[in-house]
Amino acid sequence: MRIDSLSPMLVRSLLAALPKVAPGFPRIGEEPHVQPMPHMSGPGAVPAPSVEMLVTLSAANPAIERRRKLAQDAGKGIDALDRLHKELVAGVVSPVRLQQIAEWSQSFETPDDPVLASLLSDIDLRVRVELAKHDIQA
User: Fold this and answer.
1) Please, are residues 1 and 50 in contact by the beta-carbon 8 Å criterion?
2) Torsion of the alpha carbons at 49, 53, 55 and 60, rounded to the nearest 10
3) Which end of the chain lies in a sparser environment, N or C, as judged by fewer CB atoms within 10 Å?
4) pLDDT (tens digit per residue) in 4-21
5) Per-residue pLDDT reduced to its tens digit, 95-107
6) How far is the C-alpha of 54 from the C-alpha of 34, rounded, in Å?
7) Alpha helices, H only, the chain
């Protein structure tokens, strides 16, 4: 399947995300130009890029996957803190909840991105404060 009605900006960003896999693919920063791909068949033939291939390649970006995982980890820490807060308001703190929070803090890894590192370290600090209130070290 091939879609020809993409905006030039979308084409440029999708093509910039592709690794150099075939002649005619522009490098990052180059203006894409449409060249008709010769019909190739047989072993070693490179298919013309399709929308599915472009989406698959962009979805397999390791940096995006790493950021998604970090966001999930941050969400787990915030959810655990929220559940702990609800238990504190109710007056009963579950030892299981404290153990979950301690395990999250021990598995915490500082990311390379300074903005994400700052956010995650703030969450980790809050977790450690809550654990210290209950005499638990992580």
Assistant:
1) yes
2) -130
3) N
4) 666 777 677 766 666 554
5) 888 888 888 888 8
6) 15
7) 8-17, 51-59, 62-90, 95-106, 114-133
What is d(CA 127, CA 105) in angstroms, rounded to the nearest whole number?
7
Q: Using CB atoms within 10 A of its CB, is residue 88 exposed (0-12), middle (13-18) or buried (19+)?
A: middle
108 residue type, one letter: F
Residue with tokens 């929070």: 101
Q: Which pair of tokens denotes residue 110?
A: 């500082």
Amino acid at 85: H
- For residue 10, give the 3-state DSSP assignment: helix
Q: How many residues does the chain have?
A: 138
pLDDT at 45: 57
